[in-house]
Amino acid sequence: MTQQRMVNRREFVKGAGTTIVGAAALSAMPRSVRAQRPSPVRKRRAIIPYKPDVLVVGGGPAGIGAALGAASKGAETLLIENHGFFGGVASWCLGMPINQMRPGSKPRSKVHELIIEKLLAYGDQAVRIGDHQLWCNVDYLKVAVLDALDEVGCKYLVHTQAVDAVVEGKRVVGVVVATKRGLTTIRAKAVVDCTGDGDVAFFSGAETMKEVGSLSPITLCLGVANVDRAQVRKVNIGDMARKARKKYPLIPPGWGLGRISNGHSFYINHAGTRDLGQFDATDPVERTKAECLSRRQVLQMVQAMREFGGEELKDIELIGTGTQIGVRETRRVKGPYVLTEKDAITGRKFDDVIAWRSGFLDIGFVRLSKMNIHDVPYRSILPERIDGLLVAGRCISATHVAASAGKSMGNCVATGHAAGLAAAMSAKKNCLPRELNISDLQDALRSDGVDLARGGESQDYLTNRG
After folding, report:
1. Which of 154, 158, 233, 333 has its CA 20 to 30 A from that of 249?
2. Residue 347 · residue 374 · CB < 8 Å
3. Rounded to an integer, what distance in angstroms lies between the CA atom of residue 68 and that of residue 112?
């Protein structure tokens, strides 16, 4: 014990000496260098050099649709994103298909086609097109989105996160954002919430809905390589998983390997946290648990394939995981109309239609049901009691089940497109989005190539997950 104390004391003295030397070196530093130390008291405010008419918050599929829609109509538009790139789940899920971009192989709108055009410009390594979906190399996608935004004159900022809403009366007039230079406020005539989680709406005090206890599972997608399609086809992943779960308890009961674009690597989108508990991704503690648990799950999946996948998968390699977990469901904003499961199943039409949703009613790896193409009414992209704000993507006004009918990314682009156009038009007319003439908005959508008469169509052609 005495000897240990002596060792510890010697180490302490040695460390103290280092500290003294460090202090002396500091005092010898030029004043200009030492002056760069940040003050712990002084508050910093960032300066944003843009004064947009339309502010789009969130750069996933819905935000891209909204930004392209608004800017293409001449509105000064700013798109902000808290990651370092645009694309949202389309980008950070490493190649999973962007579904419902061309349902039935038919162009859906000028906005959808602009994204596809920019991808095709980079060749077949960038994108492979199916009967409704795009398989993309995500790094080409990230640049193709920039190309599309540049073409329509949209301004954009990455590493810029919305942390609060600015509300005057009952109207959202701006958003507080966090940047590396501190907080600042971006004001706009109209704001479009494309955060997926309805963050701006929530910050503003708008009523939101959330099915705690039955939220769709969270998934961290992964990419693998050093295996070919012939080898993948020979393996029954379900049988392999049953054998491996005793050693690797976090793995899901099965998963598929999908080919990325026209390359030789594969993405895996799977049941994620479905069997591991419920996680509310708007709760910081629960989101942390889900994120960290999912990263452990990925390693167990790869190890299981290497150890229990036989000769075919024994050399498979993990080449990457998503930037973050993919969240299928959190808050939904309550609007004057709440879309229902019956609306989706029956293919309901509405007089105030501004978009339509196609694909499957798909509660991620929990339930997969057929549905008809159905309308999205304008009332479902407006908060019920808050003005100056529109919502798009998976947080539009819908029930828990009906929300799963619209989360395919092509549908999110469509509701974003409509919300962006509405924001641009209301800004130009100096009116609230709620006061906009719906027929004018519908005419603008039709001029952008949107067929608003497709509600009610069956989807017998659809055989792949939507």
Report:
1. 233
2. yes
3. 9
Q: Hunting for tokens 């027929």 — which residue is that?
A: 439
By DSSP bridging, strand 54-57 and strand 190-193 are: parallel
> 54-211+330-447: what fold?
FAD/NAD(P)-binding domain (3.50.50)
pLDDT tens digits, one per residue of 293-304: 999 999 999 999
The DSSP-derived string for 254-286 is -B--EE-TTSS-EEE-B-GGGGT----TTSHHH
pLDDT tens digits, one per residue of 337-373: 999 999 999 999 999 999 999 999 999 999 999 999 9
Residue carrying the six token digits 């199916």: 130
CB 235, CB 181: distance < 8 Å: no
Q: Take residue 16 and report the two structure tokens written for it.
A: 């103290």
Which token pair is 109? Answer: 């709108």
Domain boundaries, the chain: 54-211+330-447, 222-321
Plot region of 94 (φ>0 → left; ψ -120 to 50 → alpha; else → beta): left
Q: Which residues contact 183 (CB under 8 A, 6 or more apart)?
A: 45, 46, 163, 176, 177
Q: CA-CA distance, 190 to 199, in Å (whole number)?
A: 16
Q: How far apart are CA 16 and CA 361, in angstroms?
A: 65
Angstrom distance (rounded) from CA 210 to CA 77: 30
- pTM (2 decimals)? 0.90
Residue 339 is given by DSSP the state B
